[in-house]
Amino acid sequence: MIVKLNGRAIKTPPIWEVERYKISKAERVASGNMVMDTIARKRKFIVGYPELSGQDLDTILDIIDTDDEFINLEYEENGKMKSAVVYCGPIRAKKYRTNMGWYWVDISFNLIER
Asked: CATH number, domain at 81?
């Protein structure tokens, strides 16, 4: 799977989940019935890595952990390239030491469609 953030390819995430939301406006009319209008359909991308080197994590953080509010996301879904403008939610990572050096484990972040 190909994933690009602001045009830069990142290491393929082994954990890639997509949540789809329908944003709506609902209200009750005089009869008591509910009426609802769909405002938009949005997606949230849940990205995770069991482990990353410091260099791989820095590559991702250089793109998503900046003062820019929005990021251009390109990704492959069912053999087709798709895109979205997203912002990044919390970024989680744990530092882990092995006899080979330090690694980052349990990395996760959400990319939420604008």
From this structure: 2.40.30
